[in-house]
Design goal:
Strand 3, helix 7 (141-154) and strand 4 form a beta-alpha-beta unit. The relative contact order is 0.16. 53% of the residues lie in helices and 13% in strands. The chain is of the alpha/beta class and 308 residues long. The protein has helices spanning 2-9, 13-21, 25-32, 38-50, 67-87, 109-126, 141-154, 169-176, 201-217, 229-241, 259-267, 283-292, 294-307, and strands at residues 54-59, 93-97, 131-133, 159-163, 182-186, 221-225, 250-254, 272-278. Helix 6 runs parallel beside helix 7 and helix 12 (283-292) crosses helix 13 (294-307). An eight-stranded parallel barrel has the order 1-2-3-4-5-6-7-8, surrounded by seven helices.
Length: 308
């Protein structure tokens, strides 16, 4: 399978230098990451919302090695909040945050990440929007869930992400499927060992459906993170069986992938949120997008051969 190989490459400094230097790379990266600065991303935000779509915005970058870098990541999100305030979009544009950017892996990282993320969540609430904490590799999840629980004491709208390929996730979903919770379900995009995660696509898909049923039948607000047409159809059926109205759940997809499907779902009255990333430290994010979907890798390879 190509996915694990690509994920391994995402951690290779040599591969980072090679891919970053390739002339075609920027063209392909722009498909998934449409800007490096807030100013570059504002027209994208306006365009997507004008089309009836919603957004969750991610400032890319995970290779944080100092507290100063973590503070800079915090400040980048605070700058984003200021621009969203100017746009007056409310919850139509929220934010996604990886706690690794906020210093989670550093010494004393749990407390550092909580201290850095809290002002961002507070600032988001002040302008009428919210934050979702992204899931990363399985070793970070207990910390992420603890921070999520702590933030929800003051900001109950704070969301979190769970990953279908992990064995633990069905239990996490039952705990989280409570009134007021906001939970995004994704398949998972990190290389995880067989001791903690399903390895085969059909196993992951079946787990996704089981977990999605738990969320739809619960009292929280499910966010369906998938581009898979079959899973999207199943999600609609599970929502119907659970008696959910169209504004009681939403779909989420990545910017640059299945854009016509974004518009179709929105036209049918669904809440459709586009995960839109920007920033200069794009390498890890980009490589996981290639690993998740073979078509993305083919697109990259085709572009490389064409541009030479």
């Amino acid at each position: 399978m190509l996915g694990p190989v690509i994920l391994a490459a995402s951690r290779s400094d040599q591969m980072r230098r090679l891919i970053s230097a390739a002339p075609v790379t920027k063209q392909v990266v722009d498909r998934f990451i449409p800007g490096e600065t807030v100013d570059e991303i504002v027209p994208i935000v306006r365009d997507l919302t004008d089309k009836g779509l919603e957004l969750t915005m991610d400032v890319v970058g995970e290779d944080i090695t100092t507290p100063e870098q973590a503070a800079a990541a915090r400040d980048a999100y605070l700058t984003l909040v200021d621009r969203l305030k100017d746009l007056e979009l409310g919850t139509r544009a929220e934010m996604s945050i990886k706690l690794s950017m906020f210093g989670q892996a550093l010494e004393g990282g749990h407390e550092l990440a909580l201290a850095n993320v809290r002002p961002v969540v507070e600032a988001a609430a002040a302008i009428g929007t919210t934050v979702t904490l992204d899931a990363e590799d399985h070793t970070t999840l207990d910390s992420m869930f603890a921070i999520h629980e702590e933030l929800r004491k003051d900001f109950p709208q704070t969301g979190c992400v769970i990953q279908a390929y992990l064995f633990r996730t069905e239990s996490d979903a039952r705990r989280l499927a409570e009134a007021g919770s906001r939970v995004r379900l994704v398949k998972g995009a990190y290389k995880e060992p067989a001791e903690v995660a399903y390895q085969q696509k059909h196993e992951i898909d079946k787990a996704y459906v089981r977990i999605l049923r738990i969320l739809m039948e619960g009292s929280g607000y499910p966010m369906v993170g998938s581009h898979d047409p079959r899973l999207i159809s199943i999600a609609q059926e599970l929502a119907r069986r659970a008696g959910r109205k169209l504004d009681e759940y939403e779909f989420q997809m990545l910017y640059g992938i299945r854009s016509e499907e974004h518009l179709r779902l929105a036209a049918e009255g669904h809440r459709m949120r586009v995960y839109t990333a920007y920033g200069t430290d794009w390498y890890g994010y980009f490589m996981r997008r290639l690993a998740e979907k073979p078509a993305n890798l083919l697109f990259f390879a085709r572009s490389t051969l064409t541009k030479g």
